Input
Amino acid sequence: MPLIFWLDFAAYILVAVVAISLTLTALALGPNQALNRCFALFTLVVAVSALFMVVLRKRLWLQMGHPDFWLELYGLSFGLTAPILLTFAVRYAGRPTKRADLGAAVGFVSALALAIPLFRGQLISNAHLDPNGLLNYDLSTWGVMVAAVPVLYYGWALVLFWRERHRTAEHYMALSVFILVVGFVTGGILRPSSPIVSITTTVSVVILGYGVVSRQLLNPLRALTEELEHKVEQRTRELARRSTQLEALRKMGLELVAEHDLDTLLHSIVRRAVELLDGSGGGLYLYQPHRDALEWTVTVGPNLAPIGTSLRLGEGLAGKVWETGEPVIVDDYRRWEHRATFLGDRPYAAIVGVPVRWKSDFLGVLEIMAPAPRTFSPADAELLSLFATQAGVAIENTQLHAETQRRLKEQVALREASAVISSALDRETVLNRIAEQMGQAIDATSAYICSYHPQARESTVLAEYFGPQACEQERISDLGLTYPEIEHEFIETMQARQHNVSHVDDPNLLESERAHMQQYGAQTILYIPLRIKERLIGFAELWESRRRREFTPEEIALCQSIAQQAAIALENARLFEETRRRAAQATLVYEVGQRVSSKLELTPLLSEIVTAVRDAFDYHNVMLMLVDEEEERLTLQSIAGAYADVFPPDLQVHVGEGMIGYAAASGEIQISTDVSQDPHFVRKAGETTQSELTVPIKSGQKVIGVLDLQSDKLGAF
Output
C-alpha cells in the first residue's frame, strides 16, 4: 500500500489513543464535575470515530465485506461530537443557558434522526481507496447539506471559546476546534488529494491534549486557583478604591474644618458626599430641637425635595435613620413601604442615609441618591458614615466659631451703644445710632425706635435705620410719625417684658397690622419693649423684608440688651428735658416776681405773665380769666397763643361751665389728657384742644381767677 495510506492509518490510531487518554484524564481530575464529564464524553466519541476510521481502512485494505457500514458509523459518531462539544463549550465559558442546552438536545435528536437515511446509503456511499491510498466515497447532495449541521454547532462552540480566551488567557480550545472545523470542511466535504482530515484531526486532538495536561485546563484546583486569583484581584481593586476614597475623605475633612461660614460648609458637605459615592444628588436634614423635627436644609442635584421640608421621627428614610441611629440603605425608594409620600415620585431609586453626630448629640441626617440600576452597598454606607463623622466635627466647629463671633459682635454692639449714650445727650443722635447698631447686629433690613404715651395710647417714631437690603417700600420714612390707638393686647405683651414677633402670613394676625406690613413690604417684625423699672416707655422694631424669618433666642437676647441702652437714652433725655423744664420754670417764677414788683398796673402785668408762660413752655394756648362774684362768671383778662385771634376779647364763662368754670367753682386743679373724654370740657368754635390744664388762682381761700393752659396734643399734661 502507498505511504499515504499508512500515514492516514497511523494518524487515526494516534487520535484514538490521545482521545482515550484525555477521556481518562478528565474523569480522573474531576469525575463529579459536569465540565469534566462533558469533555470526557466528547473525547470518547472522537476516539470511537477514529477507531471506526481505522477499521474502515483495514477492511478496504484487506477487501473485507461492507466497508460502507463503518463509514456510516464514522459519520454518525462525528455528527454526535458537535452537540457534545457545544454542551462542553457553554460550561467551559461559564454560561450554561437553557437556549444552549436546548440547541444541543436538538443536535442530538437530529443526528439520531439522520442515522436512518445515513444507514440506507442516501447520504454517503461507495467507500473505496484511491490508487494513492486515500479514502474516497460518494457524497450525495443531501449528504453535503447534512454535513453543514455539525459545522454550525462547531462554529457556535468556536465563538464561545474565542470570547472566553481573554478571561482564561488560554487559546488552546479555540485553536483546536478551529483546526478540526477546517479539516472537516476541506477534507471531509471538498476532499482534496491529501489526508487533510486525519492530519487536522490529529493536530487538533494533540493541541487539545497539551492544553488539558500541561495547562491543567480541567483540573478543579486550576478553577479554584483562578477563582482565588479573581477574588484577590477584586479585593486589590477594592482596596485601591478604598484607599483612594479614604485619601479623598482625608482631604475633604481638612477642607471642611477650614470653612467657618455655616451655609457654605453645609453645601460643601453635601457636594463632597455626592462626589465621594458618585451619586446623582444628595441633601442634608438638620435637627430642629424647638420643633423636634428634621428640616431639609441643603440640596445638591435636580428633582429633590424643596428646602424647608420637615420629617418627624420614623417618617421617611431620614426619619428611620433618626429613629434607629444607624445607616439605612434602600435600593428602590419608590417601592419602599416607609417612604415619605411627597418623595415617592422622584426619579432616583437608590438612597443611603447616615446620621450626623457630634459626640452624643444628634445633628441631622446626610442622604445620597442615585438612579436605577445603581445601588449602594454597606461599604458605601460605612464610608459615608466616616464622612458624616467629619462633617459633624466641622459643623460643631463652625457653630462654635459663629457663637464666638456672635458674642464678640454682641459685646462690641453693647459697648458702642454704651459709648454713644455716655458721649452725648442729644436724643435724636443717640437713638439713631442705637437703631443702626441693633439692625446691623442681627442683619435686619430696617430698625425703628418708638416712644409710647400710655395716656394717649399712641406711639411716635423717634429713630430709624435702613439696611443695604431694605426694599423700596420699606425705605419710606416714618420718622416723627405718630400712630394712635395701639392695640391693648400688644401693649400688655410689651409691659410683661416679652418680645413679640409678627409674620405677615400669620392667619391670626390683626388685619390692621397685616395691612401695615404689606404697605411697607415687611415679612416679619420683631418687637422689643423699652422699659425703665416697671414703666413701658417705648419699643424697638426690627424688620425683615427679604423673607419670613424666625429670629433666634440669641438674636432676641442681643436686641433686648441693646434696647435697654435705648431705654436708658430715652430716660436720660426725659430727665434732661425735665431738668431743663424745671430750670425754665424757676426762671419764669423769678421773672414773674420781678415783673410783679415793677408793675403797678394790673392789665399789662397779667398780659406779660400769660405771654411769659406761653413762651417758656411752648403751650398751644394760655389765658387768664378773673372771677366777677356779682355776675358769677369769669371774664378774659389776657390770652397768648393760637386762640388769641379766635376767642373774642370779651370772652366770658359762667362759674361751673366747662373746665375753667368747674375749676373756679371747685377751687381745685383740673387736668385732662384727653378732653374728648372729660365731661366738663366744652369745645368752642375753632378750638383744636386735645388736652387741658386749669389752675385756680386764690387769695386766701377765695378763688379770684383761673389760669388755663391748652395743648393740641394728647397727654401733654
